[in-house]
Amino acid sequence: MTRPLPAPADIEAALAAAWKVGKARCADGKVAAYIPELARVDPSLFGLAIHTVDGQSYSHGDAQHPFTLQSASKVFSLSAVVAASGEKVFDHMSVEPSGDAFFSIVKLEEEKGQPRNPYINAGAILTSSHLQGATADAKIDRFRTFLGQSSGLGAGAFPVNEDVFRSEADTGHRNRALAEIMRHHGTIPDVEVAVETYFRQCATSCTAESLARLSLYLVNNGRDPLTGKRVLAPASNHGIVALMATSGMYDEVGSHAIEVGLPSKSSVSGAVLAIAPGRMAIAGFGPALGQKGNSIGAMKALGVLAARLELSVYR
Ligand code: GLU
Question: Taking the mean position of all CA atoms in its chain, how far away is CA 267?
Fold first, then answer.
C-alpha cells in the first residue's frame, strides 16, 4: 500500500539537511575524466530536486545547473523503446545484474553478444539501436521528443550538448568495441548509427529539477500524474523501475539498497535519480564521484532523505 506523502515543511527541512550532508562530502570525490569534456566540470557543484505525485516541487543548491544525462539516459531510452515497440528489445538482452564495470566487454563476449541488462553500456547501445528512425539524428529526435512529452517540459528542455557529444565520440573506443561485438553476433544492425545515437543521448542535457520532473511517470505506475499522459503500461514501468533497483548503481547497487532503499540510476556526470514509488522522484547532481563512479554527495544526501522521510521501499 502506498504511504502518504510527508508534509511539505518536513520535505523542505529534510532536503536542506540532506543537501548540507551531501555538499560536505563533495570534496572527497573526483569528476569523471575519461570523457575529457566532463573533466572540466566544477566538482563542488551540488543540487537536489524533488517532485511529488501531487505536483509539489522542492529544490536546494545547484538544482538548475545543466549537466548531461549520461547513464541516466538509459532509463529513458529504454522507456521510449518499450513505449513504442513493447518488450521486443529484450529478445537479445537479459535482465540480470552484471557484477562487472558498466563498460565491461568480458561478459558480452562470453554471452554471444547478448547484454546482461539495459543499464550497462552494451545494453544501452542495443536499446539506442531500437529507437525509432533510420538515422542517429532521427532516433535522437524521437528520444528528445519522448523526454519533452513525458515531462510536459517540451524537447527544448533537453538539448544535446555538442561539446560533450564530440568529446565522447572522439574517445569512446570501448563503446565502439561493444557495438562491434554485438554487430558480429547480429544483435545490432549498424554500429555507427547505434553508437552515435548512444553518445548523443548521453550528451543530452537536463537539470536536477527537470530530471525529477521527467521521472514522475516512473513514480506513478507509468502515467504522468500532472499531465495525465500515460507514458508506459504499468507492467512495463514496473520492470524498468525494478531494473533500476537491481542494476542502476554500478557496483554499489547493494550498499545503495541498504543505505537508501530506493530504485535509482546514477551517471558519470554526477546524477543520481531515485524513485519512491507512488510518492516522489528525487534527483541529485554532484559531479564529484566516489571510487565506484557514483556521485558521493548525491548518495549521501539520498541516505539522509530516505531515513528522514521514511522512503525506503524495504521498510
Ligand atoms: N557516456 C558514458 C559512457 O558510455 C555513460 C556512462 C555512465 O554514465 O555510466 O561511458
Answer: 6
